[in-house]
Amino acid sequence: MFFLGVVCAASGGIIVWLSNRKQSNSALTQKYDVTSQKLESKTDPVKYRNIYDGSPVLQRTVNTAGIILECNQVYVKNFGSSREDVIGKSLFDHTAEKSMDNMRKTFEIWKKSGRVENIEIWFKRKDGTVFPGLISANNIYDDKGKLIGSNTAIRDISEIYQAHSVLGDHEKQRIQLDELKKANSTKEEFYMMVAKECQIPIEPIRKYAKILSDTSLGSLTAKQSEAVNEIYDNAMKLEQLMRDIIDVQKLSSNTMEFKKEKFTVDSFMNGIVETCTPMMKEKKIEFVNSTGTKRALTSDKTRLGEVFYNLIQNAVDFVPTNGGKIEIKAKEEGDSILFYVKDNGVGILEKRKDSVFKKFYQVDISFKRKYGGSGFGLVICKGIVENLGGKIWFESKEGEGTTFIIVLPLKQTVKPVVGLHK
């Protein structure tokens, strides 16, 4: 029985699919019995055995009752530790539970139609592990044309399943990422809407607080004047917060606009002094402009002004009330301009240096209430500078102050907005 089976396998190049063969084909209709076979030479059994055993595909020979009569070495290796674990067992012993019904149907189809090809079945090993395979089977007949068995080939498709699983995981991740992007987009739209809506009532509050503080309309008591000033200051802070939120969302969504123009460095720095000097009055801060170059720079003057305003405002919060000093400076270096904002404030703790340019940096700091701020300022600075083709970094020592350095190319083509590092 075995040798006729392997003859069938060899004549088809590992597996021969025999279906509804005529009895006149003597090579395929001999009785499935080792003693009845007529081989041409003594070397034939060895040759066919080697082909059968050496096949990389799992092969087994079964009878019509589903009992395994023979198998190759790959099959033994997959399903048991020895041939005794396999030979004489039912093919259903090697079928995983979830494929049992499908295996029974497939077995009946084979007996009726004489052909099974590439049916997916889950198989079970001796140790209980399972794997997916494609099963194909041919018929073996006796000399009277009666079906007596089958040669079956099983191809392990575990790697294909793994590849599909990886692709499936990637697809799930892509869907999740798309959902996160949609949710993030909705969140950003909400922030923008809230910020813009908040700006509407802020404007009249600020306006009428300014009018109330005008002494030409009548004098206020010290307490009234203090209250009006507090209203005005907080309205200004709220207005700045709304502007910061809008800027952060624009940078995150790549919608902030940048326009290049040509201007001289010294005139720009003089404008910064004029804009920021009022910040120094309350704490009597010494404000110094050490710029020595008059070189022309091509960049976005307005956005660069925002960067300086944020850096200087930040420095004002952290320098001491008595003896505070802030210095701004610009100098030419090669094809670039280096800008500096230096203060003699409290400095930045070593453990917090990596968080300076992250959103909401100040939220977890113990002195948040003392110094205030949304934590957006330095994030905005970094986003603007990088979109202007430059770099920004800082040098700081606790208790001695901080210096922010910006380097910009003299001739700069505004890059496409790249968004914030989150």
Give a description of the structure.
- This protein is of the alpha+beta class and 422 residues long.
- The chain has 3 domains: 2-156, 2-Layer Sandwich (Beta-Lactamase); 159-255; 256-422, Histidine kinase-like ATPase, C-terminal domain (Heat Shock Protein 90, 2-Layer Sandwich), CATH 3.30.565.
- Helices cover 42% and strands 20% of the residues.
- It is built from 11 helices and 12 strands.
- The protein has helices at 2-11, 26-29, 44-54, 73-79, 100-113, 158-212, 222-252, 265-276, 301-318, 368-371, 377-387; strands spanning 58-63, 68-71, 116-124, 130-141, 147-156, 261-264, 286-289, 296-299, 325-333, 336-343, 391-397, 401-409.
- Strands 2-1-5-4-3 form a 5-stranded antiparallel beta sheet, sandwiched between helices. It has a 5-stranded mixed beta sheet with strand order 7-9-10-12-11. The protein has a two-stranded antiparallel sheet with strand order 6-8.
- Mean pLDDT is 80; it is low at 1-43 and 362-369.
